[in-house]
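We close this part of the discussion by returning to an individual protein. The sequence in question and its structure tokens are set out directly beneath this paragraph:
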Amino acid sequence: MQADTVQAIAWCDDHIRILDQTLLPAQEVYIESRDLETVADAIRRLAVRGAPAIGIAAAMALAFEARKVQAATIEECIAALLPVYELLRSTRPTAVNLQWALDRMMAKARAAGAASVDGLKSILVAEALAIHAEDIENNLAMGRFGQEVVPQNATIMTICNAGALATGGHGTALGVIRTAAGSGKNINVVACETRPLLQGARLTAWELTAYGIPFKLITDGMAAFYMKKHRVSLVITGADRIAANGDSANKIGTYSLAVLARQHGVPFYIAAPRSTVDPAIANGDAIPIEERAADEVTGFGGILTAPVGTPVWNPSFDVTPAGLIDGIITDRGLVRPPYEANLKKIFMH
């Protein structure tokens, strides 16, 4: 795969094409979805993952299903889409971009003022494509704004995958890194493998290889010792939901990195678009945290690595307190503390 063609999801008119990320890096396989359940299943089992990407996938799925609706009126068409909305909304509870994209689609349907049911269907397709295109532009903007915190010679640590695979294209945290490398900065990346599903080892390493950006892969448990023994300029991660006070939910292990970064005097940044900020949630305690199946921890690749019946706690995300975050890189600029006041400003224009 060439660096400029890494694409997690695409609209192909007669189907939605999804790169099955569960098979990377061994196989590059695309799902051609023509029904709602295929997209919902892809979101649930992480064939498509990353907050922006699942929002795009849900928007496309709703638009695709709308084209199948047989309705006499616009009101009947919207009513027929409500079960589609609810099914997609239930697939992943933590990433707010999913809810945001679906709400935007339904709001567009209700306010469209279409002259016909066919007109409404066209409007919804256009809106889903707009969500995808805007996400790419927002990622490119984050890449530019993020250069404020990336020095000329930088070793950047990250966790999970916040690149093109997790978004409409370019990436959030990895997008900042790509922009830095593309501008001529001397960038080296330290990628944490990200247990339990190894999105850092499988996906971030795969993307960085495609981009030709130098990197080292470490296990999550090596991060502290790496910071002690080697120079780390900053940590940048993505986010799946940011509360009004700046508390940020991201892949499990992110909170640990923030604590370690503070201990070692390493700046810690989040990169996420405005759609990841949830002003309705006051703080991180109110962010719903998805818990996933035990077999993600007790084995990998179909091979059992723990005794049968081993008790497991498997939260997919943790919450990093705002006090450990030095800045949030958004598509409207770098937001510094106090977050409660400054995050509001990115919604004002």
Remarks:
- The chain has a mean pLDDT of 96.
- Residues 91 and 130 are 22 Å apart (CA to CA).
- The radius of gyration is 20 Å.
- Residues 3-141 form a domain with the Four Helix Bundle (Hemerythrin (Met), subunit A) fold (CATH 1.20.120.420).
